[in-house]
Specification:
The chain is α/β, with parallel strands linked by helices. It has a domain of 221 residues: Rossmann fold, CATH 3.40.50.1100. It has 19 helices and 15 strands. Strands 3-4-14-9-10-13 form a six-stranded mixed sheet, with helices on both faces. A hairpin with a 4-residue loop joins β3 and β4. α6 runs parallel beside α7. The radius of gyration is 21 Å and the shape is globular. The structure holds pyridoxal-5'-phosphate (PLP) and ligand LJ64HWYM. Pyridoxal-5'-phosphate (PLP) binds next to α11.
């Protein structure tokens, strides 16, 4: 399997290369040269497989020759062995039509663990074959940070620098990052928003002084391997609800467009998906883009669903690439315009291509709280604010055939956002025992102004060069 950049100018890479590369050198995102396909019979044969086995089947065409099938199965078994539920991503029914797919049974209580537990192992596997040292630079609005740190803390040949917007993550999210005191972990709180942090990370991939010295790698969903792992749970849910003989719709609380793009990939691979509902909070650039073709960023407004307080959704570029017939030159021009003006208008062709599978909804604070209350009163389920936004969109979706089940992705454990949950439902969900004495532990975090120069200097001073020698 070869991977190409959405902007057409970077060298194509194999799976190992793309996992270690992160962002393409032309500023684009890597995607498979062609979408692998499963036949109806191949999908039918997946019914009932244990999660780790299903994961190995779905990932195999993306991994290509970079891992043997046996090694891939060993890695998926190890990655999903740390989940606190035997089903890894259990499905729960709320009423005759609505379901939630619980993606928060990993070590850090959010869906990010599903991909990052695997990515940590892939880094270790591929680094074991080389001399190189990796410098992971990531941006987080709260959940990617803790999941990535958990996945790589204490591992040899890796340093991780994680940027989060100061004061804009929940206490649980912050402590899950800052109480990890392993020497290869650096937490940085910046003045600014997640978008500012993400822009700095992307800039570092194109900073020759940094990439010349350090092996900069990504743990955000700009890294293809992240999305590959997320495709699996769409299959897992749909297979339980009757796929491939029955279509299923998914409602996805969306920020950086990674999770819902994984659903798109599942559909391109042959999974019968009726619709992907993109649910946003009031930071609604994606709702405006999908409903009116207007992809223009405005100022980020902090909300009770902070992980979705995002206005520049990196993975939307991957969808736009497909939606313009993979015309890399046209897409590069469109994205350069967006990078310069923070606004772009989708072409009619792109809008038509996207409308076949996607719809969208915007959810405000009142609607979110109401969805939380409904889930609790109707089904006894306590949902986190992000999941509640997805559920609101699922319950208000128009024109879905009556026999299609709707699965909302439950992206975080409610205890991560305990104050918002208590305000809406009166329930204060306890932290699961697996996170331990989070509020007793010492924190370590540096604070930096929100400028690229400050962050680059901080990383350059502390990171290990790709040669692995500090004196290099
Ligand atoms: C809890 C939670 N829900 C939803 C999202 C949005 O997912 P994505 O950025 O993949 O669209 C995030 C952050 O990414 C998150 O942490
Ligand atoms: N909500 C995310 C934002 C980063 O998204 P990613 O999926 O691209 O890593 C977070 O929790 O950090």
């Amino acid at each position: 399997m070869k991977y190409v950049s959405t902007r057409g100018q970077a060298a194509s890479l194999d799976f190992e290369g793309v996992t270690l590369a992160g962002l393409a050198s032309d500023g684009g995102l890597y995607v498979p040269e062609a979408w692998p396909q499963f036949s109806h019979d191949e999908i039918a044969a997946m019914v009932g497989l244990p999660y780790a086995e299903l994961a190995a089947r779905i990932m195999a065409p993306f991994v290509g020759d970079s891992l043997t099938p046996e090694r891939l199965r060993e890695l998926t078994t190890q990655a999903y062995g740390r989940f606190a539920h035997a089903a890894v991503t259990p499905l729960k029914q709320l009423d005759e039509r609505q379901w939630v797919l619980e993606l928060f049974h990993g070590p850090t209580l959010a869906f990010k663990d599903v991909a990052l537990q695997m990515l940590g192992l892939l880094f270790e596997e591929f680094l074991g074959r080389r001399e190189d040292h990796l410098t992971i630079v990531g941006a987080t609005s709260g959940d990617t940070g803790s999941a990535a740190i958990d996945a790589v803390a204490g591992r040899a040949k890796v340093d991780i620098f994680m940027l989060h917007p100061e004061g804009r993550v929940s206490d649980v999210q912050r402590r899950q990052m800052t109480t990890v005191l392993a020497p290869n972990v650096y937490n940085i709180a910046i003045d600014g928003s997640f978008d500012d942090a993400q822009a700095m990370v992307k800039r570092m991939f194109n900073d020759a002084a940094m990439t010349g010295t350090f092996g900069i790698a990504a743990v955000n969903s700009i890294n293809w391997a992240r999305l590959m792992s997320q495709v699996v749970y769409y299959f897992a849910a749909a297979l339980q609800l009757g796929a491939p003989h029955r279509k299923v719709a998914f409602s996805v609380p969306t920020g950086n467009f990674g999770d819902v793009f994984a659903g798109y990939v599942a559909a391109r691979m042959g999974l019968p998906v009726e619709r992907l509902i993109v649910a946003t909070n009031i930071n609604d650039i994606l709702h405006r883009a999908l409903s009116a073709g207007d992809y223009s960023a405005s100022t980020v407004t902090p909300t009770a669903a902070p992980s979705m307080d995002i206005q520049v959704s990196s993975n939307f570029e991957r969808l736009l690439f497909d939606a313009c017939g993979r015309d890399a030159a046209a897409l590069a021009a469109q994205m350069q315009q967006f990078d310069a003006t923070k606004a772009l208008q989708l072409t009619n062709a792109q809008r038509e291509a996207i409308a076949g599978l996607f719809s969208s909804a915007r959810c405000d604070a009142g609607q979110m709280a109401q969805a939380m209350r409904w889930a609790y009163e109707a089904a006894g389920e306590v949902l986190d604010p992000h999941t509640a936004i997805g559920l609101h969109a699922a319950r208000t979706a128009q024109d879905l055939p009556a026999d299609v089940p709707v699965v909302t992705l439950a992206t975080a454990h409610p205890a991560k956002f305990v104050d918002a949950v208590e305000r809406a439902t009166g329930v204060r969900p306890p932290l699961p025992a697996r996170v331990g004495d989070l509020f007793e532990r010492q924190e370590r975090c540096d604070h930096l102004p929100g400028t690229y120069e400050a962050v680059a200097a901080y990383v350059a001073e502390r990171a290990t060069p790709k040669s692995g020698r500090k004196d290099a």
